[in-house]
Amino acid sequence: MHSVMARMNQMSSSVLVMGALLLVAVAMSSQWLAREPQLRVAFRRAQVVERGAGMRHRRAGSAQPQKQLVVEFDLEADFTQAWHWNVKNVYVSVVASYNTTQLAPEGAQRRASSTVVTSNGATSDDSHVVVEHHMVLWDRVISSQDEARIFSSDLRSKYSPRHSDGSMVPLDRPMTLHVEYMIFPVVGAFTFGSSALHAFVLNAEES
Amino acid sequence: MDLRGQYLAERVFMIAQPLALVLSYMAGYLASDTRLVLIAYAAISAISLLVCVPSWPMYRRHPLQFVPQPPSSEHE
């Protein structure tokens, strides 16, 4: 502390350490300020529509109109109670999930016995593995408390649910819908959560 | 800066820092604005550094008194 440089060195490092402590305190405040958001989603109807081919398919030479699945649902998401000073953004998405079965690969029965489903009287040769599919139908980024309430009926899916190989999802299968959210804080750890599952059978109408 | 001045500067800084911490946190919390926390903390810290780092006259009020030089022995 005998010279200006020595004081500057000691005091500036102290300011930085205290600043880091301040940010930790802000991050920890999320632990007691966080409230569970109110989330509810309900399926209304689904229909298969034909739409013009996208740019990618036009370039590839196949200008055939494509069948797309449009899912309509009601959504109630209230993040006003969950919003506090350390929330920067909330990413909300509506996710559809369903299961399919496929033949278990060689050796998978022994490695993951809990996921193997064997039909009645089947031998070990035709065992099947349950595959879970999760598809985002709709999403939104909420960036202020004023828009933290979403009460919408008859929302349409923004993204058409498809498999990774481009094939349509099966239209007669039991499915579930749920809301997932991810809270982006200003400082600190991300928070994830989801609503209860809403089960339904797709039964899509062709139009 | 004399020895008493160094002690005073350190003391002022040690009081100002926790004060900056508490005041900036409370200001940000009450205004529900995390950016305000950092702005307030940076502002109070900058003022406290400005007060404590330079050798202001208030830190030089007690200069060391040196023992007077003994009379030279060339007259002996």
UniProtKB/TrEMBL annotation, chain A:
InterPro entries: SPC3
Coiled coil: none
GO biological process, one term: signal peptide processing
Topology with respect to the bilayer: Single-pass type II membrane protein
Domain of life the protein comes from: Eukaryota
Subcellular location: Endoplasmic reticulum membrane
Any single Pfam family the record assigns to this protein: SPC22
GO cellular component: signal peptidase complex
Keywords in alphabetical order: Endoplasmic reticulum, Membrane, Signal, Signal-anchor, Transmembrane, Transmembrane helix
Signal sequence annotation: 1-29
Family in the record: Belongs to the SPCS3 family.
PANTHER family linked: MICROSOMAL SIGNAL PEPTIDASE 23 KD SUBUNIT SPC22/23, SIGNAL PEPTIDASE COMPLEX SUBUNIT 3
This protein's name: Signal peptidase complex subunit 3
Annotated organism of origin: Porphyridium purpureum (Red alga)
TrEMBL record, chain B:
Compartment list: Endoplasmic reticulum membrane
Topological category with respect to the lipid bilayer: Multi-pass membrane protein
GO biological process, one term: protein targeting to ER
InterPro entries the record matches: Spc1/SPCS1
Assigned GO CC terms: signal peptidase complex
Transmembrane segments: 12-32, 38-59
The keyword Endoplasmic reticulum appears for this protein: yes
Top-level taxon of the source organism: Eukaryota
Keyword set includes Chaperone: no
Family from the record: Belongs to the SPCS1 family.
Protein function: Component of the signal peptidase complex (SPC) which catalyzes the cleavage of N-terminal signal sequences from nascent proteins as they are translocated into the lumen of the endoplasmic reticulum. Dispensable for SPC enzymatic activity.
Protein name: Signal peptidase complex subunit 1
Species lineage: Eukaryota, Rhodophyta, Bangiophyceae, Porphyridiales, Porphyridiaceae
